[in-house]
From TrEMBL:
Cited NCBIfam families: PRK00779.1 (NF001986)
One of the Pfam families matching this protein, by short name: OTCace
Enzyme Commission numbers on file: 2.1.3.3
GO terms for biological process, alphabetical: citrulline biosynthetic process; L-arginine biosynthetic process via ornithine
Domain Aspartate/ornithine carbamoyltransferase carbamoyl-P binding: 2-134
Descriptive protein name: ornithine carbamoyltransferase
Protein origin, superkingdom: Bacteria
Entry keyword tRNA processing: no
Organism: Sphingomonas kaistensis
Family: Belongs to the aspartate/ornithine carbamoyltransferase superfamily. OTCase family.
Ranges for domain Aspartate/ornithine carbamoyltransferase Asp/Orn-binding: 140-281
Function: Reversibly catalyzes the transfer of the carbamoyl group from carbamoyl phosphate (CP) to the N(epsilon) atom of ornithine (ORN) to produce L-citrulline.
GO molecular function: amino acid binding; ornithine carbamoyltransferase activity
Length: 286
């Protein structure tokens, strides 16, 4: 059984196949079936993109919360996985603990998809790669500069995808905010001058969900890594990407995120297309 828990589990050919399916006509692979969408964290893009992707494949998405399932309290992870598989062709989960996804996948007779965990965000990574391909005409050899907090789930999945498909990723972040398990070939530096010559500049919030107690320290540590007009001038032809939600005036200025080289809305739309492509690939493997 194939699952999508992290892009690190996939080959470059697997990722390319998902991206190709994202741009292909939808196949009715979920006709007459449900899709369990389990959310421990709220979401705008993930819920909307996944529900529509399931619908486009002929399935019926069911939104589930922690209170409804009671995983690990009212019922074991294994029993929840087997129960959901009685009704659904796929189980998708947005969770705090990546280990919960691994436990679901170990017990589930249907594909399990990571809609976000504390360590990985593969669906965002796929959308990022598809957007880069559409903007630059290729992925291999494209120079991507990720600026800001580089040790999070978005940066990790982007790094895994770039490494698999040959993009040249540089994480520009101060010490303590660089990716702790960067794949081979990913460059990390604290020097903002490394943005020069980038084809794509990528940013994410300085304070992610669940890090509110660290707000003051993070804002101070990362203030110099704001993507603003001065920084983007080092790469004047670069496209700007952001996984959203964004905080204008913190990690990025309004002038950059709303500017003519910003592709954030195409990137957001691609969350739906790549979710559909990933589901098609998994269900065809099944």
């Amino acid at each position: 059984m194939k699952h999508l828990l992290t892009l690190a589990d996939l080959s470059g050919a697997d990722i390319e196949a998902m991206l190709a399916l994202a741009e292909a006509p939808p196949a009715p692979l979920l006709t007459g079936k449900g899709a369990a969408l389990y959310f421990e964290k709220p979401s705008a893009r993930t819920r909307n993109s996944m529900e529509l992707a399931v619908h486009q494949l002929g399935g019926h998405p069911i939104y589930l919360t922690a209170g409804e399932l009671g995983i690990g309290t009212r019922e074991s992870v294994e029993d929840v996985a087997r129960t959901l598989a009685c009704y659904h062709g796929v189980i998708c989960a947005r969770v705090f603990d990546h280990g919960l996804l691994q436990a679901l996948a170990a017990a589930s007779p249907v594909p399990v998809v990571n809609m976000l965990s504390g360590t990985d965000h593969p669906l965002q990574g796929l959308a990022d790669l598809l957007t880069i391909k559409q903007l630059c005409g290729r992925i291999e050899g494209v120079k991507v500069a990720y600026v800001g907090d580089g040790d999070n789930n978005v940066a990790r999945s982007l790094a895994q995808g770039c490494a698999a498909l040959g993009a040249e990723l540089t994480i520009v972040a101060p010490e303590g905010y660089q990716l702790s398990d960067a794949p081979a070939g990913v460059v990390q530096t604290a020097d903002q001058a490394a943005v020069a010559g980038a084809d794509v500049v990528y940013s994410d919030v300085f304070v992610s969900m669940g890090q509110d107690s660290e707000t003051e320290k993070r804002m101070a540590d990362l203030a110099a890594y704001q993507v603003n007009e001065a920084l983007i001038a080092r790469a004047p032809d670069a496209w700007f990407l952001h996984c959203l939600p964004a905080r204008r005036g913190e990690e990025v200025t309004a002038g950059v995120i709303d500017g003519p080289r910003s592709a954030i809305w195409r990137q957001a739309e691609n969350r739906m297309h790549t979710a559909r492509g990933a589901l098609m690939w998994l269900l065809q493997q099944d």
